[in-house]
Design brief:
CATH architecture: 3-Layer(aba) Sandwich
Number of strands: 10
Distance between the termini: 66 Å
Strand content: 5-15%
Low-confidence stretches: 1-30
Number of domains: 1
Number of helices: 11
CATH class: Alpha Beta
Amino acid sequence: MALLHRVNRAKSLSSLLRPLTTAHNHLHRPFSTDSSKTLTIETSIPYKSHIIEPPSRSVETTPAELMDYFRTMALMRRMEIASDSLYKAKLIRGFCHLYDGQEAVAVGMEAAITKKDNIITAYRDHCIYLARGGSLVSAFAELMGRRDGCSKGKGGSMHFYKKDSGFFGGHGIVGAQVPLGVGLAFAQKYKKEDTVSFALYGDGAANQGQLFEALNMAALWDLPAILVCENNHYGMGTAEWRAAKSPAYYKRGDYVPGLKVDGMDVLAVKQACQFAKEYVLKNGPIILEMDTYRYHGHSMSDPGSTYRTRDEISGIRQERDPIERVRKLILAHDIAVEKDLKDIEKEVRKEVDEAIAKAKESPMPENSDLFTNIYVKGYGAESFGADRKVLRTALP
């Protein structure tokens, strides 16, 4: 393509480097001074649409953006792999749902919106939290139930939260986050904020009645709600074809437009989310189906190999892996060399290890913390015995 540039490798790498500007405080990789030059790249496969014209397959990006994507997804991948090890070492207890394989959805979506837009999701929430600006230390501290966690160690893997960045959490009840997401969109329209809300759910939650009830309300009131089905093709030990008569989730809205997106292509996700945001601000809700894949099982208690073959998983890794796709783009357009990318992966590994060590230093919550974050602070609450005569305790 005429827009594609080549780095002059005769020059020393150090003379070509400058800091990478990014919204993530953990992304700092420097590289080429012409990193802002526009590249036009076509998505790997066309979009499929329902009662709406799909967006263009040609996506504009820059070398800086591609390097940002690579590092962010590598960081997410490493965080999830480390979480697997921490769980097996019993430093993470309870439920734990990993996101490795689906990183392009989190990163592409974030690239298309601002922190004033809202995101709410189910329990596979670690990487969404990181994309919203959360730190590795607070993520690992929460996973290990420590006080420095993003939910003060009381939420664990399924309940990450970052309100100041428009992340309204992971939710453990299947599909329950969708009505909440529509409620967030209602508030945005009521306040005339000109922002949108993304409500994420999996293919396993796509048959929930509350999803359709919420969608009906969103359509009646033309709310700026984007329902995102992260279709990784397996629910809790069940293939989608065994659970859904119609697995074309982007068409499920019937009267609501839909778009099927290659969820393993970060640029396709970015383009689709930009398109969806512009659409819903003028017209009301839309459904995006992200065709993606999880490498781990449904949760850490699921080996993920009883209902699918290892060959299937390795085939997806070889042909569709989101990180490898960006790696190939970077190398093909001479944005960086293989050693640069290997160095980034080494940095990421070190960064994750350091974050884990710091998170381990965080103390466990006090027993008294069990009584906090239940009632509105300052209002007080009294607890009486069964006869309503003996005051048992008074909370501050």
